[in-house]
Write a structure and sequence with these properties.
single chain; 259 residues; alpha/beta; elongated
């Protein structure tokens, strides 16, 4: 490059520009990325875990949750747990547990079973009685048996059959609600009391004490028995009542299908 050309190129860049670029290059090399002041951001997995513990355990405060996290190997400050709960809209205190009757009964529902007996009329005015059990927690209905004569021995046998059908699930039952009908005899109660179930008779003229069973009877009548004519056919032995879950499912008696 000729001397004249070099002079033209030098006029494009001043010495001050060169020195300024050099200073910026040195600063960029030795200057580290700046960090925001304060604590580092909380991981998303930790946030999800704290929120889950708070929602699934309403009786735990933020300090209890912190202790559980320490047991899981997560070293988290109590103030961090408190702020995460607040951001999720969860009360950080241990007094947020719902103590209403609805919540209490829902928690006890899995241990409660209700039973009742209702009648149906055939097309030829023959009356049959249906014994059923219904779980408060699952609302699952078990048709125990059907007969024209609900005697004490028959009722007790259906109670034994019901417990046998439940198997290991019978251990979760703590209370049986029934009305004060004469067909619920002492032998019927003794079957459940022998396995540790407390039988609770309803008060006189208080059908709401067994409202779930009464509601199912009403639904059964409105949606089934009041809409059809039930023909009569002799089932099994002419004098021996048959169970709907027994080995002989003759006539019009059909079991309720499992959900």
């Amino acid at each position: 490059m000729s001397k004249e050309r070099r002079t033209q190129v030098a006029l494009l860049v001043t010495p001050g520009s060169v020195l300024r670029w050099q200073a910026r290059l040195i600063a960029w090399k030795w200057t580290h990325l700046s960090r925001r002041p304060g604590r580092p951001p909380r991981p998303g997995a930790l946030r999800q875990l704290v929120v889950r513990l708070g929602r699934e355990n309403p009786g735990w405060g933020y300090r209890r949750i912190q202790g559980e996290l320490l047991g899981l190997g997560r070293d988290v400050a109590a103030s961090t747990v408190w702020s995460i709960l607040k951001e999720a809209g969860i009360d950080a205190s241990s007094q947020r547990m719902d103590r209403s009757w609805a919540t209490f009964l829902k928690a006890q529902a899995s241990a409660i079973v209700a039973t009742d007996l209702f009648h149906i009329e055939t097309a030829f005015l023959r009356r049959w009685f249906v014994l059923f059990f219904i779980g408060h927690g699952t609302r699952r209905v078990h048709i125990a048996g059907i007969t024209r004569h609900p005697t004490g021995p028959w009722m007790a046998q259906q109670a034994r059959n019901y417990l046998m059908d439940l198997g290991d699930r019978a251990e979760s039952i703590r209370f049986l609600i029934r009305d004060r009908g004469a067909y619920f005899t002492d032998s019927f109660d003794a079957v459940f009391q022998a396995v540790g179930v407390r039988v609770i008779p309803t008060l006189p003229q208080a059908p709401r004490m067994n409202s779930i069973a009464e509601r199912w009877i009403g639904s059964c009548r409105r949606e089934a028995t009041d809409r059809i004519l039930i023909p009569y056919r002799r089932m099994g032995h002419p004098t021996r009542p048959q169970s709907a879950h027994g080995p002989r499912r003759q006539g019009w008696v059909l079991p309720v299908p499992h959900p």
